[in-house]
Amino acid sequence: HSDDKPYKCSECSYSCKSPGYLNKHMLAHSNEKPYKCSVCNYCCKTSGDIRKHMPTHSDEKPYKCSICNYSGKSSKVLKLHIMRIHSEENPFICSGCNFSCKTRGHLKLHMVYSHTDEKSYKCHECGYSFKISWDLKKHQLTHCFDKPYKCAECNFSCIKRNGLLRHQKIHTDEKPYKCNECSFSCRQSGNLNTHMRTYTGQKPFKCDKCNVSTRQSGQLKRHMLIHTGEKPYQCSQCDYNCRRSEGLLRHMKTHQ
């Protein structure tokens, strides 16, 4: 039960209680991705990430919400859905301010974005650095123009298989997710959840810097860039950078 964390990272301020955790953390500072998918060309840094990835090769969603028609691929995903959508409780409280939220992950993001200036995750292609590894992963996609997953119906292509699966639904008329308040229907459960908030008025994602609140976590993340001044999407051919990926895509056309 000791709070001692004797194993310290030589690259950043991270410390932990066991050498195994430190070895796992050090992968964040390297390009090594030893875990490879046996179905596609996806590779990652941890065994946990490969386990999370494998359900993307299956359409089965056996875990069903008892309150709405949402279904998920794992019990963890279902628990997160219930907490985020159907619960008003915010059990995770920041020790540095009055911010509270529904998940431990959201609290960790808040602590990094709001209470530290350290940017430990550096892009080896351009030198741009980030506060969290996920932002670095998204940024690194801007350096990758290989899109191996191609639609057989049109010229759409993408980096990940699940992106292609989502896209292919536009070529069918199937919209299995239906609103019980109106005639709205859609192809993805997440879109239905967002739509339902137009009836509840719920905006669960709140900015801790101002009074803005949003219906989607992605909207809040984009909003937070206004406060941080970060422009994570950087052109690989000039010094242009911007806050949104679509802005970079528009800019890249100027180099064609």
Automatic annotation (TrEMBL):
<dbReference type="GO" id="GO:0003700">
    <property type="term" value="F:DNA-binding transcription factor activity"/>
</dbReference>
<dbReference type="GO" id="GO:0045893">
    <property type="term" value="P:positive regulation of DNA-templated transcription"/>
</dbReference>
<dbReference type="InterPro" id="IPR050589">
    <property type="entry name" value="Ikaros_C2H2-ZF"/>
</dbReference>
<keyword id="KW-0862">Zinc</keyword>
<dbReference type="GO" id="GO:0000978">
    <property type="term" value="F:RNA polymerase II cis-regulatory region sequence-specific DNA binding"/>
</dbReference>
<feature type="domain" description="C2H2-type">
    <location>
        <begin position="63"/>
        <end position="91"/>
    </location>
</feature>
<keyword id="KW-0863">Zinc-finger</keyword>
<feature type="domain" description="C2H2-type">
    <location>
        <begin position="149"/>
        <end position="176"/>
    </location>
</feature>
<feature type="domain" description="C2H2-type">
    <location>
        <begin position="121"/>
        <end position="148"/>
    </location>
</feature>
<feature type="domain" description="C2H2-type">
    <location>
        <begin position="7"/>
        <end position="34"/>
    </location>
</feature>
<keyword id="KW-0539">Nucleus</keyword>
<feature type="domain" description="C2H2-type">
    <location>
        <begin position="233"/>
        <end position="256"/>
    </location>
</feature>
<feature type="domain" description="C2H2-type">
    <location>
        <begin position="205"/>
        <end position="232"/>
    </location>
</feature>
<dbReference type="Pfam" id="PF00096">
    <property type="entry name" value="zf-C2H2"/>
</dbReference>
<comment type="similarity">
    <text>Belongs to the krueppel C2H2-type zinc-finger protein family.</text>
</comment>
<keyword id="KW-0677">Repeat</keyword>
<dbReference type="InterPro" id="IPR013087">
    <property type="entry name" value="Znf_C2H2_type"/>
</dbReference>
<keyword id="KW-0238">DNA-binding</keyword>
<dbReference type="GO" id="GO:0005694">
    <property type="term" value="C:chromosome"/>
</dbReference>
<dbReference type="InterPro" id="IPR036236">
    <property type="entry name" value="Znf_C2H2_sf"/>
</dbReference>
<feature type="domain" description="C2H2-type">
    <location>
        <begin position="92"/>
        <end position="120"/>
    </location>
</feature>
<keyword id="KW-0804">Transcription</keyword>
<feature type="domain" description="C2H2-type">
    <location>
        <begin position="177"/>
        <end position="204"/>
    </location>
</feature>
<dbReference type="GO" id="GO:0008270">
    <property type="term" value="F:zinc ion binding"/>
</dbReference>
<keyword id="KW-0479">Metal-binding</keyword>
<comment type="function">
    <text>May be involved in transcriptional regulation.</text>
</comment>
<keyword id="KW-0805">Transcription regulation</keyword>
<dbReference type="GO" id="GO:0005634">
    <property type="term" value="C:nucleus"/>
</dbReference>
<keyword id="KW-0371">Homeobox</keyword>
<dbReference type="GO" id="GO:0006357">
    <property type="term" value="P:regulation of transcription by RNA polymerase II"/>
</dbReference>
<feature type="domain" description="C2H2-type">
    <location>
        <begin position="35"/>
        <end position="62"/>
    </location>
</feature>
<protein>
    <submittedName>
        <fullName>Putative homeobox transcription factor sip1</fullName>
    </submittedName>
</protein>
